[in-house]
TrEMBL record, chains A, B:
Belongs to the mannose-6-phosphate isomerase type 2 family. It catalyses: alpha-D-mannose 1-phosphate + GTP + H(+) = GDP-alpha-D-mannose + diphosphate. It comes from Candidatus Rikenella faecigallinarum. Its EC number is 2.7.7.13. GO terms for biological process: GDP-mannose biosynthetic process. This is mannose-1-phosphate guanylyltransferase.
Length: 365, 365
């Protein structure tokens, strides 16, 4: 196994409206440093994979409007390494595009596919698992996903149930065969999942050989596979973008989990425990950020709180805030928008953003 | 009585920190249009007095740092009509300065003294009362103040108790002799005041002849009077400001009410009912502003509220706000500061401003 065959596809097309107004259409979550680490999510994702994948083998798939931002955050990439979707689609077309593109230049490639906006604190453990996974899928059609050992009965994640019986093909590894993928459970179900020890969180990180995923796409999404296969001679040339712009809009809007993983017989999960969170909500930010003595998470200088607890406050640099009498609220002042809401109402933020867009226009969302 | 003898002194030296962050040291309340009338308080004060006093007889007393702002809001004034205090003092030195300045040019002057940051909705009634008052004080030493018929047992105002027995000198007018000036009462006392019918709110608007107030200052604040009298030949010349800068800091920091009005035997009150409020607090703004169906006062475009009642929201133009789950709060986003606090905590805003200044610096207050 040679490192030159290792490829990574970073998926960076999301808009992250749940973090409005910190995230906006023109600056979605992957480009933000929400946790104050000094690096954006996409930059951290890129740096985490660099020891495993040569920089020239890293591709980012995003929307055309974010291409410049991707290159600003990842100046090591050449413009041709940033693939752009002409319209927003779920993960299956995104992954199919990248896979056929890679197959056209290196049919022996092994691929990691990773979201661009997740938190991972245990980088060494992550890299070790990725290397193990790449070896496990090389030269075969196995599809692997990384599962996360659940630390709580989270209802915001999908779960993967594994077959705990040892299998010949995974002998000597921590890799299990997948029994089922599940949708987000309710709390009762999530508790049962966690107690059983058979369920892992679905991290959305995949590892496979390019041959393996092409085989799976041809088997389970044959129409989509045929569309991308037709571009074999276009990939890497000036006609690639016109080709993609022509076929992408008619691709089915389906996730790789639903379209491929749930239907394939040869799917495995490697359980990881490397400090992962999708930081998909303000609630998960609150969990991961430093809380002060009043349980407040103050993401800015120049904030004074009085009789305020359990509250997240973020204001722009150079601004001052006085916050009095709030308990378990979210206060985000960013650019041309101010949001004040109860933390327990965070699932409504998408609706607020829709209302703002409808009432006041695109420039605020 | 000739209109050329009518003078007005507008007191505009306050900083209005209770309206922070809408008011700031560099832009205090008198220069704001808090109620959204399209005019600042000082502009409204000026226009209200114009039908009664020739424009060249209107003086504004303010701090040196606000002189330019006064002239921007009142471009009809010549720079020499804006008197500047080198240090902040209470109303007695301010009024003494203006009175000696006026006496130096017109010993027959009659004066109205008015705060610059109050609301008056009944302008015609106000002007009629001022004219009546000017006639009442002309050529004598009577000191007159305008009292406001109380509409509620307000604890934020001083009260004036009157002698309801008709007096020969006020015959045929609605003017009464003053019995006592009182400090701000507690609620029980305020209720007794209002029910008695003998008490009026002290509006801080005074009317007297220049001879009358000079006589009273010489009698009750003789040291202060002597200081300002010594500048007789300086007023209206290039040496006026150096003279004032030299004597002002040593003037007693005392109000005209306490220093003169409470001690004079010849004090009268004219009761007015012309829609007056000092708009001294966010609470009084809330009372006077238009409330929507959820009892919110939304002072800006582009504000969406959800499950929010009794709340004041003000944000800058071009910004959007989403506010959820607040009841009886104050949300003010202005320039480089954001304030969120319960309306019932508004009396603490001065303390918050002090804390902000101490912690983060002058540029925020």
């Amino acid at each position: 196994m040679t490192i030159q065959n290792n490829y990574c596809v970073i998926m960076a097309g999301g808009i992250g409206s749940r973090f409005w107004p910190l995230s906006k259409n023109r600056k979605p979550k992957q480009f933000l440093d929400i946790l104050g680490t000094g690096k954006s999510f996409i930059r951290s994702t890129f740096e985490r994979i660099l020891p495993v994948v040569p920089v020239e083998n890293i591709l980012v798939v995003t929307s055309a409007q974010y291409k410049e931002q991707v290159l600003e955050h990842l100046p090591e990439l050449k413009p041709g390494q940033v693939l752009t979707e002409p319209v927003r689609r779920n993960t299956a077309p995104c992954i199919a595009y990248a896979a056929y593109r890679i197959a056209a230049v290196n049919p022996n490639a092994n691929m990691i596919v990773a979201p661009s906006d997740h938190l991972i604190t245990g980088e060494a453990e992550f890299q070790s698992i990725v290397r193990e996974g790449l070896a496990f899928v090389e030269g075969n059609n196995r599809l692997m996903t990384i599962g996360i050992k659940p630390s709580r009965p989270e209802t915001g994640y999908g779960y993967i149930q594994v077959d705990t019986a040892p299998l010949p093909e995974t002998a000597g590894t921590a890799i299990c065969k997948v029994k089922t993928f599940t949708e987000k459970p309710d709390l009762e179900m999530a508790k049962v999942f966690v107690e059983s020890g058979e369920f892992f969180w679905n991290s959305g990180i995949f590892i496979w050989s390019v041959g393996g995923i092409l085989h799976a796409l041809e088997s389970h999404l044959p129409e989509m596979a045929a569309r991308f296969a037709a571009g074999h001679s276009d990939y890497g040339t000036a006609s690639e973008q016109p080709f993609i712009d022509a076929i992408y809009p008619s691709c089915e809007n389906i996730s790789i989990d639903y379209g491929v993983m749930e239907k394939s017989p040869d799917v495995y999960v490697r359980c990881g425990d490397f400090g992962w969170s999708d930081i998909g909500t303000w609630g998960s930010l609150y969990q991961h950020a430093e809380q002060n003595e009043e349980r407040n998470v103050i993401g800015s200088e120049n904030v004074l709180t009085y009789d305020t607890r359990g509250t997240i406050v973020r204001i722009p640099k150079g601004k001052v805030a006085v916050v009095e009498g709030l308990e378990d609220y979210l206060v985000v002042d960013e650019d041309n928008a101010l949001l004040i809401c109860r933390r327990e109402s965070e699932q409504n933020i998408r609706n607020y953003v829709e209302d703002v867009k409808y009432r006041f226009g695109e420039e605020f969302v």
